[in-house]
């Protein structure tokens, strides 16, 4: 019975993260309880990057690359906050 509870709590702890990567730096952009929701957010973020491609080029900001991965609540940094759609704010990748 204890093994079943451990397995259930491990499943409850797993979320789906939209990961933003620029170069070698990656950050959790947003988290969701389902993979489908994370994939939808990733698609939206990629569309925002495509829509603002000219702005990114002229401001010399590299475009972020987005992916989806499972993440545990315990792996999130304590001060974690969602990233803006283009992955940076005030010229800094955060």
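^ Assign residues to that structure.
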């Amino acid at each position: 019975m204890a093994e079943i509870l451990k397995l259930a709590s491990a499943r409850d702890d797993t979320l789906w993260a939209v990961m933003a990567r620029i170069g070698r730096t990656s950050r959790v952009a947003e988290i969701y309880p389902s993979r489908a929701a994370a994939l939808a957010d990733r698609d939206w973020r990629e569309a925002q990057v495509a829509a603002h491609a000219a702005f990114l080029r002229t401001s010399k900001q590299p475009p972020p690359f987005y992916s989806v991965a499972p993440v545990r609540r315990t792996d999130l940094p304590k001060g974690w906050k969602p990233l803006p759609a283009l992955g940076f704010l005030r010229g800094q990748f955060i």
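The chain has three helices and five strands.
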